[in-house]
Write a structure and sequence with these properties.
alpha+beta
Amino acid sequence: MAKKPKKAAAAEGEAGEGEAPKGSKKKLIIIASAVLLLAGGGGGYFLMKKKPGAEAHADPAMAVKIPVVFLDVREMFVNLSTEPGQEKTKFAKLKIALELKDAKVEIEVKPLMPRIEDTFQVYLRDLRASDLAGSAGIYRLREELLRRVNVAIHPARAEAVLFKEVVVQ
């Protein structure tokens, strides 16, 4: 048998040694990708699987939405309390809407509008212009009016008090 030249033998030796790591790397990549594919498929299955009775608690966007109702309160023009050392009386002009859950609640609340307006007037007359200064003052006013309107219309409930216009002069 013929002797191979040294260069050819050396090339075969290098290729022989180089193939073993390349083969193990390929196997490792194939096994890792198969494991990741199976894990991803299993995770997707569990996420997409519906539980019994989950239809009622499914995606809220798919549920039938009952439209909210906005009930306007008459425009109010109120003189505010004077601050110490102040001679000029300040006034507030407010346009407010109540956010209600649905039309059924609106039917309950409409007859109680005089009570709501009275509650607002009494509270607003006790305020000073400095109480309504800035966004924090308006936020506090919104929270207090919401609390008072929910007391006035109990057992019905308003979801929010929305300001259409607020002017303090």
